[in-house]
Design a protein that fits this description.
Elements lengths: L7 H15 L6 H34 L4 H32 L10 H22 L5 H7 L3
């Protein structure tokens, strides 16, 4: 069985399934084939539109003049990862090799709530935006108007 890297096979299979399910059985094979080709073209056009929309979102973000805005949420995410690494990995390793007792350092509960909130909002918003979703909630999460 071959690998369908282009996705054309899955579109063709889906179109054939729609033809078999929704068109009347009295249609001739040629009519069904023509309907299947038309459905494939529509599905292919939809897929290309979705990919173009995702590409334009990424391009517009990269061409944005305000460089900090592009990096603000990722900066919070990466800073949180650095704090977690320091407290839970680096400092314990240093204390182990220096044979000194490590002071009790813990990240406060407020850090965990705010950091996970920012990460969740960023991940959900970006995922929805990349899929082409729009709406007031998505605009609020991503900062787009």
């Amino acid at each position: 069985m071959g690998l369908d890297l282009t996705g054309i096979g899955s579109i063709a299979d889906f179109a054939k399934g729609l033809v078999d399910r929704f068109l009347p059985p009295a249609m001739t094979g040629a009519e069904k084939a023509q309907a299947q080709i038309q459905i494939q073209e529509l599905l292919d056009k939809r897929e290309n539109t979705l990919i173009d929309a995702q590409k334009s979102i990424i391009v517009s973000e990269m061409q944005q003049a305000d460089t900090f805005t592009k990096r603000a949420r990722p900066s919070i995410v990466y800073s949180g990862l650095i704090f977690i690494f320091l407290v839970h990995v680096a400092f314990p390793i240093i204390a182990f090799f220096t044979d000194k007792a490590m002071p009790s350092i813990t990240l406060p509960e407020q850090f965990w709530w705010s950091w996970t909130g920012v990460c969740s909002a960023w991940i959900i918003g970006r995922s929805a935006e990349k899929k082409g979703a729009t709406g007031s909630v998505i605009s609020l999460l991503t900062g787009n108007k």
